[in-house]
Amino acid sequence: MQPLVGFNKGAGQMKRVRAILVRVLLATTTMGILFSVLVAFFSGAIAGLFSRTDVELIEMVRRGLPWFVIPISLFGVTGTMAHYFLSVHVPRKAALLLLGRQFLAMPLFLLLPRWLGFYGLYLVGPCSDLPFAIVAAVLMVRELTSLRATPEPAK
């Protein structure tokens, strides 16, 4: 995506930039949702791949793994928009989306297990990714609107 967006934005081909961005967003989000749903439905089988004898471990993973993979479905928007901003030389927005979730996750790793026990660890991902997925969605709408409003160069 990055070379195509960078080239077409530099050439003033905003329709192409918009089309590339929309296609990549659809692809990454669809793949993330599909993966998350599959893991959520088959979490017991996946846990069983790593241990056949520790029933307690398998049950713990079976209950927590669906929560742990929810952020993967959200990252389609966050990751795509971060890489879009990198390709159009807007590093601050890219850094906000990529690093912000990491900085939020650090205190959550300390706090959520204290408040919710072991299963609080599983909620760190969704709790740190959801706010930045919302920020990414807002930035995406603004960017798509801006691309639509930008006139194409004369041919």
Report on this model:
The protein is mostly helical. It is 85% helix and 0% strand. α2 packs antiparallel against α4 (55-87), α4 (55-87) packs antiparallel against α5 and α4 (55-87) packs parallel to α6 (120-149). The longest helix is centred in the middle third of the chain and has 33 residues, at 55-87. It is elongated. It starts with a helix and ends in a 6-residue tail after the last helix.
From the structure above, extract its key features.
0% strand, elongated, 85% helix, mainly alpha, 155 residues
By oligomeric state, this entry counts as single chain
Molecular shape: elongated
Model regions low in confidence, pLDDT < 50 over at least 5 residues: none
Strand fraction:
under 5%
Rg (C-alpha, Å): 19 Å
The overall strand count is 0
Mean pLDDT: 90
Main sheet specs: none
What does the secondary structure layout of this molecule look like, with pairings?
Blueprint: H1 2-10, H2 14-41, H3 43-48, H4 55-87, H5 91-116, H6 120-149
Helix pairs in contact: 1-2, 1-4, 2-4, 4-5, 4-6, 5-6
Short account of what is shown:
The chain has helices spanning 2-10, 14-41, 43-48, 55-87, 91-116, 120-149. The protein is mainly α.
